[in-house]
Amino acid sequence: MKKIITTLATAIATLLLIGQMAWAQGKTHYVAIHVDTSNPKIQNMALNNVVNITKYWEAKGDKVVVEVVAYGPGLTMYIPGKSKVADRITTMALGMENLSFSACGNTRRKMSKKAGHEIPIMEEATVVPSGVVRLVELQEQGYAYVRP
Question: Which pTM does this prediction carry?
Fold first, then answer.
């Protein structure tokens, strides 16, 4: 009985130590930000969310991974010449390794068909098959969902 109690106490102490080590190393948070409007105020708010979330968690010693997913009218944020936030996206992409941008392939295809030519997307954004599906995939992977 004494051996069982000693083994159990050692196991609990080990688990507590592992837990403390994990806490000291910080946690990684995952956030998906949804943009479906061409309104530059909302697009800027989404980018502000990225900055604020990153600053908050990093100040606590944690990490954060953020993906901005745009579809529908929100895709304009990634279209050179139409985007009112292009410079900000470029700057953020260069300075924030925790950040990625996804552009809806369905929306791009429909916009391209209507325009009669391929709609360009900023090099900072990756075209995904479907923006809505991408948001679902991210949430299934444990990402928190934010819509400014």
Answer: 0.82
